[in-house]
Amino acid sequence: MNASQFFKQKVESVMTGEGRVPLISLASALYTVSLFYGAGQKVREFAYRQRIIPSHQLPCKVICVGNISVGGTGKTPMTMHVAQEIKQFGYQAAIVCRGYRGRAESQGGIVSDGKSISMGPEQAGDEPYMIARRLREIPVIIGKNRYAAGMLAVKTFQPDVIVLDDGFQHLRLKRDIDLVLLDHAMPFGNAHLLPRGILREPISSLARGTACILTRHQAGIDEPATASIELIKKYTPPSRVFTSSHEPYCYGVKSGEQISLNRFIDRYSHQEIDGLKKETIFGFSGIARNADFQNTATNLGFNTIGFLEFSDHHRYSAHDLNYIQSKAASAGARCLITTEKDLVRLSPQNPFPLELIVVGVKISFGDDQREFTSFLKKQLSQ
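Predicted structure:
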């Protein structure tokens, strides 16, 4: 571990840590920085609210799926879920993403027209490309300037509704519905702003939202602290607070096999999964919450005998692939396991001499599904 990685690890531990800290410490220094960051956020929001900085309106309905924290709250699977619901209502939908770290992020462009994909993950970014693979009948457009990307969607596809992936802080674009996602277990982390904590904005910014969705709910896991629930209810009416969970599914790519754009529909049967549970499996991922993926693999019943973690959005080099293969071989693994998000950053075919198990997630609202559907329909009809 080099100095940069060590410092990054220390900062991340402070951001997720709780409790009292010494007056002179890294945590105190980061807290001081967070005060300036928070002041800047308040000035920015004030400028948009007072129309000192203008916001732009698209000629169609806009639903934003966002959050107030860094890290994985499940914005991308929620964006796909909402877009699919809208399509089932009979609306024409399109999805607009930033295209983070994609080569086309600055100039923007069309990733998919709903029938064919015109950008790879290097151009589009991980999430937009993954969405395009999953939703073959809904156009996907990217652009750092979400208003310009939205106008491109309107001119090209004439959607009734645009779903904006990760845009709660993008105040330049007006929205009709703001869905704010919070992690069910830790809605606000340690309740500090960046870089002392994980919050992008003060908790009071929930008041800008139309509804709040507690994501990643797991049966048997304790409910959020009473104080957190009361804070949510302070800014969001209880009737507009929903709970969802992530339901994992698995599919496989054989050694050397092409990674098909339609591969996601070819999921393992229960019998195939039961057979894989008997194999020794080595895992790797480069997402915001690698530990959560490890837990998912374990909870699915896979015998994982080793794991490598990479940073979020990590681009796998030939050296990385060789290192993964070497570690898996040393551990005696018969299969590899990774996430669907990581899959799009691999080569067009499985680069490993082992079967690659891919884990994706879909959203389930459980008992809240009927209420959430009713809420969406009502909001779109206004």
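Summary: The chain has two domains: 61-244+365-381, 247-363.
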